[in-house]
Amino acid sequence: MSPLLRSVYSFLLILSIALPSLAFSSNRHPIILIHGFIGWGRDEMRDYNYWGGHTDLQQVLIDEGFEVYTVSVGPISSNWDRAIEAYYQIKGGKVDYGISHSEEYGLIRSPEGKVYDGLFPQWDADHPVHIIGHSMGGQTTRMLEYLLKTTFPDEKSSLLTSSDSGWIKSNTTISTPHNGTTLMPIVYNFFPFVQKMVVYLGGMQEDSFVEKYYDFDLEQWGLSRDEDESIKQYLRKIKASKLSESKNFCAWDLSLEGALSFNDLSETDSSTYYFSYATYATQKKENSDYHRPDEMMNWRLWTSGYMMGKYLTSEIDWYENDGVVNTVSMWGPVGSELSAHVIEEYSGVPAPGVWQKMGKLHYDHEEVIGHKLGKFDPTDMKNLFITHCQLLYSLN
Known about the structure:
The protein is an alpha/beta fold. It is 34% helix and 12% strand.
């Protein structure tokens, strides 16, 4: 797709979403941004933002009149641990990963230093929030909703001992592997774990930059990084720990099997609005069902894009991808026959209780949130988020 056609398509898509929300706002609930795998918070990576890259997307949205906050959760932690961290960052208090969960996986239940004032302490059913999650952040939001609504026996934290519905007004996912990604087995089968992590981080910024400004937030595992320890040395320490072989780790949650397991456990809420955006940056090869990267994919994702585009154990419709996640996995959770997840095309009128497919965007996994090598015009990205936030504020 040419840049001109892409801009026209993006404008028409944004306009179609914006039309229902051009009236006065029906709510002013805060919007929470949750990053994905290998993501970071606003106090890391200096002035390079996860949300926007060299553009401060949070500030852009604030300038447009939205109340927006960003949380910073474990970049390679499990969705359970990430959701717990997100809860306490929003609500306030000392992180408690749960008695049973901590005992099962050998965690420090309430690590020192993980205490928060709360970005929005009044958060409850009368004061709900909208959440936008990119990549694994969308899974984390679904886990947070599950933890809010589920009562766990013999626990002590307020999150795990009560059933709270209505705290999340809407859940928007962007490039989220709801049903897993075939990148996970590729990483484990073809690339050493540590090398892949270093390559990905090195693609974001220079190694020296990452060394100084990036935090893996693994205090619950007793895996704090020593002061004189390099990123590569620290990653080797993680690899040597029991973390990388545990199901309480991102690799399990992002796998096809792990995602299906959670999809069968979680449920959509009849009062919550769900929106999903998909991305792609591959095209079919000539005379083949396989996919290859197209001109929209950043070169550092070419290898994964190629390999996902022909991963032999996947179905044909799983070949299309954005370099990190299979596009078909982004529309919403699909479980077994016992699951009750409903996925529909967005009709132009928001409907609660179903996953609404908002559009397939011609971006790779990083560019949709502002990460691109070379020149990058953030106008389309900013308009996409502004328009969607307008839609969120139009919800009754």
